[in-house]
Amino acid sequence: MMDKNWFQTGIAIIITLLIVALTIKIQVIFEPVYIILTTIFYPLLLGGLLYYITEPVQSFLERHKAGRLLSTTMIFILVVLVLAGLGSIIVPMIVTEAGHLVERTPYLLNEFEELFEFLMSQRERLPFDVQEQVDKIVDQASGIIQGLSAGIITFLANTIGVLAMLILVPFFLFFMLKDHEKFIPAALSPFRGAVRQFLNELLSDIDYTLKSFIRGQVLVSIILAVMLYTGYVLIGLDYAILLALFALFMNVIPFVGPWIAFAPALIMGLIQDPLMGVWVAAVTLVAQQIDGNIVTPNVMGQKLNLHPLTIITIVLAAGNIAGFVGMLIAIPFYAVVKAAIKNIWRYRGSISETLSNRA
């Protein structure tokens, strides 16, 4: 029985869980490692995001005879120019709308409180099960918003974290662009034979999965945010640029993000004018239909092959475990784990044989 693949796989899983449990028990020993990892996590995440977005530009430049160092430098210059251009156009609009929003905050809070009390008073007319679902949705939305607000305030208050971000993100991006082709060979250098082939295909699949998800999701989010902003401007919704920017960041979260972004837009519309709330819902519906039937299928395709129910379950579970950051990385993390399991299953026989021969 010990020679069976399923038995060896089960033993490996049990040993891994035991190692994780022991690590949690003696976490004080690993505290310095934890501090280092948390320090570089966000810069590495943003650096990797920028790398996957800008790598196609680098490939284009290198196909047209630009060297690696020159293409990397040109990308940095391009990023700075794009940020400066967007900043000169969008930042004044954001500042104007944000100032107006701050001035009207007491009025908006009062209007929101009245709207919320009205909606809560209508719950009694709903069937019991529907009322229970409304309570759950309200509780989850409040928890997500509170967690997101607390995270943003904590991060902005941490000056050291901001400085580390400003320094480390360009650092990680530079070396990812300059040496990205060396990462996999360097990681595989200690291995030979079937194990090396397995790890090579595994890392290549993970790279392809992350590349497909990040590029596709960012592009879809930008297109959807532009559609929403255009619709909000056409119907005359206040704070259109702020709501569209919020939607841009929320739409990075698959399937659930657009609904999170819809809530403040609907509330603002209802406060401005009850009829405006209807127009906001109509704009969102049209944008979602265009995104779901035209944009996403052509941009994302079926590369991740995830069922919508799976996406919702993973995102909500990750949100309860790790807040907004958990929701943000849940789907790519799940896709990476899925790719790893598929490769392990495909190579389970040859890997087991190689390890047995070494033993």
From TrEMBL:
Spans traversing the lipid bilayer = 7-28, 34-53, 74-95, 152-175, 218-235, 241-262, 274-290, 310-337
List the source organism: Candidatus Salinicoccus stercoripullorum
Q: Which Pfam families match?
A: AI-2E_transport (PF01594)
Record-level GO cellular component terms? membrane
Which family, according to the similarity comment? Belongs to the autoinducer-2 exporter (AI-2E) (TC 2.A.86) family.
Q: PANTHER family attached here?
A: TRANSMEMBRANE PROTEIN (PTHR21716), TRANSPORT PROTEIN YUBA-RELATED (PTHR21716:SF69)
Annotated protein name in UniProt = AI-2E family transporter
This protein's membrane topology, according to the annotation, is: Multi-pass membrane protein
Superkingdom, taxonomy of origin: Bacteria
Cell compartment(s), UniProt: Membrane
Q: Cross-referenced InterPro entries, in alphabetical order? A: AI-2E-like
Provide the alphabetized UniProt keywords.
Membrane, Transmembrane, Transmembrane helix
Extract one GO BP annotation from the record. transmembrane transport
